Amino acid sequence: xxxxxxxxxxxxxxxxxxxxxxxxxxxxxxxxxxxxxxxxxxxxxxxxxxxxxxxxxxxxxxxxxxxxxxxxxxxxxxxxxxxxxxxxxxxxxxxxxxxxxxxxxxxxxxxxxxxxxxxxxxxxxxxxxxxxxxxxxxxxxxxxxxxxxxxxxxxxxxxxxxxxxx
Length: 166
Hints:
Elements: H1 3-11, H2 27-30, E1 40-47, E2 53-61, E3 64-68, H3 86-95, H4 99-110, E4 114-118, H5 136-152, H6 158-163
Helix pairs in contact: 3-4
């Protein structure tokens, strides 16, 4: 999906027929119609505003979200501008007396290498299911789909993703 083909379809629909574009118009989704090819979305993250590198890849498909954090090693903490905001300050304060909040702060700062969330049962992505054997097939399917997307897009981390421990 892409903004340029969408704007062209709105402003000059005839212009699209002669163009070869990487993206596709998402006008059907904007007008309440069916949008072909929207079964999943992929997100990438590279660096924070201050230039710290935290490569991440995620795929969202139906009820599922799978996130791969190749930077995560259990030692490196995720540092970004959001960490200095009032919300994180409040979380850190509450974490002093609330073990559940303390665990969430740790999860936000140190992220697992792989995360799996089920939006049907956990709309706020609080319960990481990646290490739960009951969800192994869902995890494997999302890994495969993300790997296929990374290969198709020639993602520079494609080989590293393929070599990651499963």
